[in-house]
Predict the 3D structure of the following.
Amino acid sequence: MKKYSCLVFLVTLSLTMAATSAFSEMAKEGSYSGKNYSTGTSKAIPMGEERLHLAIEGSGIYVSDDEDGFLNNASIHFLGTLHAVKGVFEESGFMVFNVPDGDKVYATWKGTGNLGKDAKGTLTYVGGTGKYTGLTGSDEYTRANLPGPSKKEWAAITVHKGNWKLP
């Protein structure tokens, strides 16, 4: 019985050390690429013939180009604004990535473009919960408009390429 108990203890100790070693070697930074697919609504405030202001709300899913990649299969929710003058716009907002394991990642974005055309901009990570606490990093994005699911909704695909870092 003593031999069996000793063997169980050694196996448990070995597995614990291996798991601790693997956890401590987990990446603390990296680069990534992927796409998010989103739909949403906007509320317009027309400002004469040359100006338009939109309040934007949307949601979707982020898919990494790597199956085990950063934020793969996270759902997203975002709020933002877009202000256009003579068809040229600036946009900004805030988004939350809900990662499949239950953690959250927070980000801001800023972009520019022409109404009806692709938009380009940057996304900046500003923290998160759980293993993403203290997250920093950024990416560059390009967003293309898609036909919306209804007259009151828009749809888009956004291509991302960036980097991230944990403390």
Observations:
- The chain has a mean pLDDT of 89.
- The beta strands are 29-47, 51-64, 74-85, 88-98, 104-114, 119-128, 136-146, 154-165.
- The longest helix spans residues 2-24.
- Residues 57 and 102 are 22 Å apart (CA to CA).
